[in-house]
């Protein structure tokens, strides 16, 4: 049976199994505790009770172990039989515990999103301080797809079939700043939906500050029509009988060196196998999982930015 006191003595193994360092886990556990307690009270207050809150059976394992179990599931994407075995509970208990913790992690993930408020008049005295406090100069948008199970319902499976990936997928749009920090994540949609159409559906137009430039790959041709008040850049796309010129190829290479930032962020998300392997669960719960991983990745990126800034 895995216990925190024992596994924390092996930092390298700890990160391989749970996807976070021991220090990151301690901080995550500290922040999760009040969020989970608040959600637990809401859950217990939703129905008529015959006894006061606090009555009945306690959890078989403590909050620390339940968080470890959830992180192992996100990182390794084990089935609940194996997950329960490692923590000394049956598979139904493991499933219930993971689902419970995911709700709190999703809430924490949502709290890491959003754009900083711009400085008010006379709030900063110099440009250097303003850039340090409000670093967002670019919004780099991209969509990531993950393979899902083929639905037995014809219409549902048809909507999820991605012509780009040649399989059934679920698509999520990300918008990161120039340092890779996730500022916006859309609700996931079936993979058949085009990237630009997803941008329209996500209503991200109203959330991107006007002072921020926006960049997207060739899938976002026409993005400037959606953002008439922003500075918008997209890569050039070759068309039939209209190959790219040498200048356009050069601009695409320069553009790729900037757009790789969002690709690196997506890569960090996909280090958690729950977002890289075929998603085996109901797609209605996909957003809970995606935002839970955002709750793990975004703070790590923030710490890295702070570390670089301090050098």
Write the layout of secondary structure elements.
Layout: H1 4-7, H2 11-18, H3 22-44, H4 63-76, H5 80-87, H6 91-111, H7 127-133, E1 138-147, H8 154-160, E2 161-162, E3 167-176, E4 182-185, E5 189-190, H9 195-202, E6 213-216, H10 223-226, E7 232-234, H11 246-270, H12 286-310
Parallel strand pairs: 1-6, 6-7
Antiparallel strand pairs: 1-3, 2-3, 3-4, 3-5
Outline the biggest β-sheet: 7 strands, mixed
Q: What class would the helix/strand composition place it in? A: alpha/beta
Low-confidence stretches: none
Number of strands: 7
Oligomer: single chain
Helix content: 40-55%
How many helical stretches?
12
Query: What is the mean predicted local confidence, pLDDT?
Result: 90
Spatial extent as radius of gyration:
22 Å
Which geometry do the CA atoms define? globular
State the end-to-end CA separation. 42 Å
The ordered string of helix (H) and strand (E) elements is HHHHHHHEHEEEEHEHEHH
**How much of the residues is beta strand, in percent?**
5-15%
């Amino acid at each position: 049976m895995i216990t925190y006191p024992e596994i924390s003595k092996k930092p390298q193994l700890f990160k391989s199994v749970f996807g976070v360092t021991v220090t990151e886990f301690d901080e995550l556990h500290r922040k999760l505790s009040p969020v989970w307690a608040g959600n637990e009270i809401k859950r217990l207050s939703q129905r008529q009770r015959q006894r006061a809150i606090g009555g009945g059976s306690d959890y078989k394992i403590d909050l620390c172990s339940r968080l470890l179990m959830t992180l192992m599931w996100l990182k390794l994407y084990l089935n609940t039989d194996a997950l329960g075995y490692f923590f000394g509970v049956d598979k139904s208990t493991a499933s219930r515990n993971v689902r419970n913790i995911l709700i709190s992690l999703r809430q924490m993930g949502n709290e890491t999103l959003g754009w900083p408020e711009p400085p008010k008049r006379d709030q900063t005295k110099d440009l250097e301080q303003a850039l340090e406090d409000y670093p967002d100069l670019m919004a780099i948008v991209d969509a990531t797809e993950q393979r899902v199970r083929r639905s037995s319902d014809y219409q549902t499976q048809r909507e999820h079939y991605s012509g780009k990936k040649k399989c059934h997928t679920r698509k999520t749009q990300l918008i990161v700043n120039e340092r890779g920090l996730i500022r916006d994540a859309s609700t996931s949609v079936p993979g058949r939906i085009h990237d630009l159409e997803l941008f329209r559906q996500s209503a991200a137009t109203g959330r991107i500050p006007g002072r921020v430039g926006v960049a997207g790959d060739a899938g976002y041709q026409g993005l400037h029509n959606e953002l008439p008040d922003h500075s918008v850049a997209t890569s050039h796309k070759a068309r039939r009988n209209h190959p790219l010129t040498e200048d356009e190829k050069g601009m695409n290479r320069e553009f790729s060196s900037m757009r790789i930032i969002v690709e690196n962020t997506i890569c960090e998300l996909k280090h958690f196998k729950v977002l890289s392997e075929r998603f085996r669960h109901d797609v209605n719960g996909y957003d809970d999982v995606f935002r839970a991983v955002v709750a793990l990745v975004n703070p790590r990126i923030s710490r890295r930015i702070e570390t670089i800034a301090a050098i």
